[in-house]
Amino acid sequence: MKNILYAALIAALFCTLAGGVWMLRSSSSYSKTASSEAGDPLGFSLLALLYKIAATPVSAEFVPPAQGKAALADLPNRSITLFENGAEVTKIPIISIGKPGTAWETPAGNYEILTKEDLHFSSLGNVWMPYSMHFFGNFFVHGWPYYPDGTPVGTGYSGGCIRLKTEDAQVLYEFVDIGTPIHVLGGEGVRERTQDSSSAYYLTKGGDRPTVSASAYAVTDAETGALLFARDANTEHSAESVARLMAALAAVEVVNQFAPLSITFSSGDTDTVLGDDAIALLLEGNTSAIEVFRVRAGAKRFDAAMAGKARAMGLTQSTFGSDPLIAATTPKDMSIFARYLYRNKQYFFKKTSVPEEEITGARGLVHTVVYPTITLGENGVYRGGVIGSSSGDALVLMDLPLSEFEKRPIVVSLLDSKDPARDVEALAEFTKNHFVHRPQKSFVKSVLSKEGESVLSKALTFLQSAALAHELKKGEGLRDGESRVILSP
């Protein structure tokens, strides 16, 4: 009974704070009608509003296949676990990985073993790599590398590959086959924690939904995966920003970043730049930079890398065509993409967090790359992102003061907007004004201190109303998606 009253109390808090039980509608105002958005996993549900916003764990759960072999490369814990028919076979220590936060950070995601060589020569590092297993782009799992004269490479971070002791690499090499799944778990640069069930997002105010021109959007927590609110999050639109990000991601993972590239600036002048500056031009949408990277990697290989990376991240609602600057996606997939970058490639957010970046080519030509600027008001911190002006889309990371002691990493993903920068700012302001992230008990205590014991009677009233609503629904034979029960405050 205590748990029931506690749950009812939480529900009553919303009645108290908002003057009723409400949901976000597609229109501009809140409705006191308890309805559901059936079929939309990113839509609001009644329970999410009454109690808390549901969240997924930070760490993607890895479930080994019941049949066959698989490997889990856990980068934060520096280990590779081998599985066969669902059971753990052995665990191998990882000695070195790509440095977190850099362009050559070891890529997380779902991959498979593409090739195996007992001794592979890397033209990028000019080293021999024993028991080499290729899983994506320029990335391999292999034994300890050595130079042509036999000298082992030094310790420290790798260029992105997963380095093992040579004897351990042999164990892995003899275990896996071509096509064996390998799940690379990243998140090295992000504190590792799952969403504590005692903490959650709460929607604390009624009012109007923000007025934005975007046809579809989603606002999510980059750390926990919690969705705060959305509009048509599964609806597909063109997205220049996602195309640029995916092209840049493919470029850093399939092309040698230390080789000079001849790129034409927007001024029409051509100069030679190195990888980091070339990536800035990619993020700017420079078509010359795109083509140079595609030619260097091979167009088919580059395009396949973009599509393969989308699969590795679990983007099931995105399409990348032969033109790397054209993509179609949904706010749901954009949120997944942003969370992947937040956990595994913060390099891209950091690079775009400044207003502009000056690039100087080998001939001395100077070009200024201008990144989006977003105004977030008091206590908001812009952490980077991209905006597609021609297609009206945006993917932006920011820190907002939603928690008592810390800011929360929030992602705004939107499509089909007439003014994406202004829409991002409007959604950010709405989030600051209407959501808090609190431990559940702390949230209840804060409301009790304001409302007093009268809130308990409101909780009981809510329970009675809910029971009556349930009976009405049963009596009318309505399906779940058809419920239109009015709950009194």
Shape field:
globular
Number of domains: 3
DSSP strand tally: 27
Q: Calculate the terminal CA-CA distance, rounded to whole Å.
A: 22 Å
Q: Percent of residues in helical segments? A: 25-40%
Total of helices? 12
CATH class of the largest domain: Alpha Beta
* Residue windows where pLDDT falls under 50 for at least 5 positions: 11-60, 191-197, 475-489
Beta-strand percentage? 25-35%
Order of strands, widest sheet: 6-5-4-12-7
Major sheet: 5 strands, mixed
Structural class: alpha+beta
Radius of gyration: 25 Å
Please, what is the CATH homologous superfamily of the largest domain?
DD-peptidase/beta-lactamase superfamily
**What is the residue-mean pLDDT, rounded to a whole number?**
78
What is the CATH T-level topology of the largest domain? Beta-lactamase
CATH-derived architecture of the largest domain: 3-Layer(aba) Sandwich
Task: Please give a handful of descriptors for the protein shown.
Beta-lactamase, L,D-transpeptidase catalytic domain-like, 31% helix, 12 helices, disordered C terminus, 489 residues, alpha+beta, five-stranded mixed sheet
